[in-house]
Amino acid sequence: MVRIHRRLAVWSGFLMLNGLIGLSSLTLAQVPATANRPASTTPAAGVTTAETKVSTAATPAIPGAYINPDTVKAGPFDMGKMWTFDNPPKDYFRKTYNVNADDKWFEQARLASLRFADYCSASFVSPNGLVMTNHHCARESGTGVQRKGEDLNATGFFAKTPAEERKVEGLFVDQLVKLEDITNRVQQAMSGAEAGSEQAQLRAREQAFATIKQEYASKEGWQGLELQTITFYNGGRYALYGFKRYNDVRLVFMPELQLGFFGGDPDNFTYPRYALDCSFFRVYDNGKPLQTTHFFKFNTNGVRDGEPIFVIGNPGRTERLKTVAELEYDRDLQVPFTLQLLRNRSNALQAYNATAKNDSILNEIFSLENSYKAYTGQLAGLRDPYLMARKAAFEKQFQADARAKNVSADRLTLWDDLAASTTQLRSVFAASNYLAPSERIMGELLTFANVLMQYGELSTSRPDAAESARSLVVAPKLRNRALEEAYLAAHLTEAQIGLGSDDPYVRTALNGRSPKEAAAYLISNTKLTDPAFIKDLAVRPQAIRSADDPLLALARIGFSRYVTAARQARQLFQTQEVLRGQLGRLLYDVYGTSIPPDATFSLRINDGVVRGYAYNGTRAPIMTTFAGLYDRNYSFGDKAPWNLPARWKNPPAELLRQPMCFISTNDIIGGNSGSPMINKNLEAVGLVFDGNMESLPGEFIFVPDLNRSISVHAGGMVAAIRYIYKADRLVKELVGTPPAVPAKK
């Protein structure tokens, strides 16, 4: 796709407000230390009572039953269990699970855990730098090292010797080695900013971040580390993290796509599950395998019903501190709009790829379908009166506990202030979303028409800027006209729904036609792909306002409306960011570390137990076996996405009884993919790769009675590597000398 308009937008300072459209990638936000407060991680007073039982979730209402909000109580862990390593939950783990997790235990857990690039989690699982993560995290890295004539998605990969391990260019893993509380410095900088100016406070915060990072970059013990400022509690606390980055990472083992992605999208977010979603890499240091004492030893028999179990990883984002007013905004506007975009764009790409057969497009389709399923589950949770009543109950209890601590009256208006700003956001939602110039919103050509409008305005307001941008104004080259028409038709359909049929923008766009007909007409009659036409507009930007082109005519109506609404939305978002920080600070002042902060793609540890759950009128077992994999394969007639590669067709009988996947009550979210599942002895018993459908409301609330994390069983990984791949070198590294493999019958 043409990226001209994005370069122009960035260069000229125009903000597309990606966060508005619900399609931006996970924010790699951050998280705080609390060295000046005692580490208390028992459930918050008022919200819950002291709890020592393993299962503490409130019982959900029967679907469809009447809910009396006055009788609903907040659950003990509605805000989740994503504990930070800045204040590890030592007392809580000891009281709840009788686990003697001291400072040394947490240090070992932290140093054995990794961040895999900037999108997944991982861990060391041998003293020789062996790294474990998911297949779906490693897929692009793995296929990136395939050679001419190879198809590693079809065949998988195993390096039989160290010399065959393949370096993945650009891949890195980060190990968190230093943590520092910087809360006071950042909050003092913000409080010294211009009073009443959210923008000034946010600028002061960013300047404080930059100053602190510059200072620590030359500080003893921090030199040479990757430094990142981490935000906890939406700004209630701050920390500086220092990472040891390893850039020499080599592929060791990756199963075929059909095993790593077994069941495809239909099985995504479901259980029982049968996916071998694992891969192994190795970190090299100075050309040799890294020697480390920080790793999780494999335990292939460590999963039992009721067993305490812990996940260590980098959960991407949760928004559990959001107020009820903000969640209602998401329920009524943001999430439904996002679902529209995902569904329509996926449909367009699927139609396009039916003939294109492009693997990259296939990955994009899966990403959209994955997001669609996730947002569907989130919306179901937001529309669940019981879950929303629990959020309201927590909010009410939080306010009562704040008053009991005699906080100042101005801090008790935060909920009202956030509600007021959210009401204002509702008024600009339609224009700031449905008219947003973005290839994913309206396709390339209409987006380019909006960019030309911006260029024309710059020529009047800032001639020097327009002159500098002139070389960027080049006619787009479409990759596929049918796809462009589909994207534009989807945009016009959505605009008609969101803005109304009588809206001037919609009337001009449709002019009595259906969205599909209008899209075809507009693309057939536009001159925006004509290099001569665009060259003329580039040298005569004043002509853009009067140029005879149907897409420019549409942009003339929509662009100014979008800019006005987007500026208002940006200001409101800045206001809310500051208010959320104040609310987070209040949460911390009232409850301390008994409530963990929202996920921010920073290292966390969370606790749970191995436990089944009721579903579909029956009960889900705690684990599945390879026999179930074959049952699912045969039941679907060996058809995709349940088909199996040739090497899997005739398994030894011993494999069939081996465990494959299992479930637990741990609190995970996107970003936790690749996280090790460990026991109290710091042994790896599994590898997290998914959650069930019931876990999807976890963006805003954690309900552990039905929420389940799904992991590949450590014994299942070893069994597959041993019996199917015959990768004895890897088996030996993970669990010692392998026994003889039984012959196939």
Automatic annotation (TrEMBL):
Function description: Catalyzes the removal of dipeptides from the N-terminus of oligopeptides.
Pfam families tied to this protein: Peptidase_S46
Species: Fibrisoma montanum
PANTHER family: PERIPLASMIC PEPTIDASE SUBFAMILY S1B (PTHR38469:SF1)
SUPFAM superfamilies: Trypsin-like serine proteases
Name the record gives this protein: Dipeptidyl-peptidase
Protein family membership: Belongs to the peptidase S46 family.
Entry keyword Lyase: no
GO BP annotations listed: peptide catabolic process; proteolysis
EC number assigned by the record: 3.4.14.-
